[in-house]
Amino acid sequence: MNFLRNSSASKGVFLIAGDMVLAVSSAYAGTFLRFFSSQNFHGLKEYSPLMPRAVTFSFFVVIMCFFVDLYSIGKKNDRKEIFLKILLADLLAFIALGTFYYFVPSVQLGRGILFLSLCFCILGQSLWHIGYTLFLGLPAVAMRILILGTGPIAQTMGNLLLRNNKGFALAGYINCMGEQIQVPRESVLGEGEGLLDVAVKEKVQKIVVSLSERRGIFPVREVLNCKLQGIDIVDGPSFYEQMTGKLLIESMNPSHLIFSDGFRVTVFRRHLKRMVDIFLATAGIIFSIPFLLVVPALIKLDSKGPVFFRQKRVGEGERHFTLFKFRTMVDGAEKDTGPVWSKSGDSRITGMGRFLRKTRLDEIPQLLNVLSGDMSFIGPRPERPFFVESLKKQIPYYSERHCVKPGVTGWAQVRYEYGDSIEDAIEKLRYDLYYIKYQSVSLDILIVLDTVKVILFGRGGR
């Protein structure tokens, strides 16, 4: 059962698969109940084959569950919140399906069948999600994890497990050669030499190596013995990545960047991504024509100044380029202050600008930057040269985010709200480096879906 509890991402996949099966089953149950209750067996034949209709129903249910954050990594929901999210998702699916059926009637479920199917689906999903959460919380099921180390990295791993404990149980910590103890002393179960004995006694299934310094203190023989006994051994930073979808940059070193999996960009992927960028940017500009006609007029009516905002940003290879956006601040906003981050409730933002930022419509002109090749559709957010020079001096590996093209949207943009401090910049860098390390078509698709969700719910704009 390890695959049920291996990571937050695998849990999400497992829940989605369960929801898909439940939604298809609900469509079948609703259809058969509707026709059998009315004894209209001839009408049932008209719905054959039923599978395409059931799959369409399932697709919209799962998409709406995704939009209401039912599968979000690292989020813990109580039973009431789970039920409310499922209820909202299925209501949104009802509205979306009604619109879709108008254009594609061949996969339509009648109103009565659709209502019954949604009732079955809400009940089934609620039982599935709540039952799965309770199941993972059982002590007999939870994966017991032992942390090798007692320093700051071990403390981070322990806190991570305590915050996201569904499916995991922290067995304790092992101190190695007098390493500084920054974890609760009552949770320290022994020294490195007795690692296997402790692991067996505590019925540990995974050991997370979280040493701040390994030279001279890493118990190689004991860890190898645990590995040979079937206990999973995982590096602390890798475990952190699985659980959070970001990198633990505090423990990173050049060898981690060089020898770890990921950070690989092939020539084929570069060309493929460029073709996708051109296609998406072109399509985006075509669909944005109404906004390109209306928004400039509204900006002019709202405040004095140019419609478009041009600003130097840092791109791939730390080359500077000119970024285009719709103007959202008063003209000459930084004339007296110089470059400063936008704060919450910033008085420099115009009334129209606040709306444009919240809906992300101010970023439509960036599609021109994508077409010109300065930006990609997906990548780290392009920062201003002034802030880049400052952040490079304060944050290790900050320059590494410039090894790919910046993006209109990205992993950090959809996973973390707008940042206006060094701490926020560090947190966003964790996500940026995770994207650079694991970039793939599937991750790009997830980012696009998350971006749609962010725009629909107006999250993160400032």
Number of strands: 9
Order of helices and strands: HHHHHEHEEHEHEHHHHEEHHEHEHHH
Instruction: Give the neighbour order of strands across the main sheet.
Output: 3-2-1-4-5
- The domain tally reads 3
Helix content: 40-55%
- Give the biggest beta sheet: 5 strands, parallel
> Radius of gyration in whole Å, from Cα?
26 Å
Overall structural class, as computed from helix and strand content, comes to alpha/beta
Q: What is the typical, i.e. mean, pLDDT?
A: 84
Measured between the Cα atoms of the first and last residue, the distance is 44 Å
Précis, in short:
With about 450 residues, this protein is of the alpha/beta class. It contains 18 helices and nine strands. The strands form three sheets. Strands 3-2-1-4-5 form a five-stranded parallel beta sheet, sandwiched between helices. The chain has a two-stranded antiparallel ribbon with strand order 6-7.
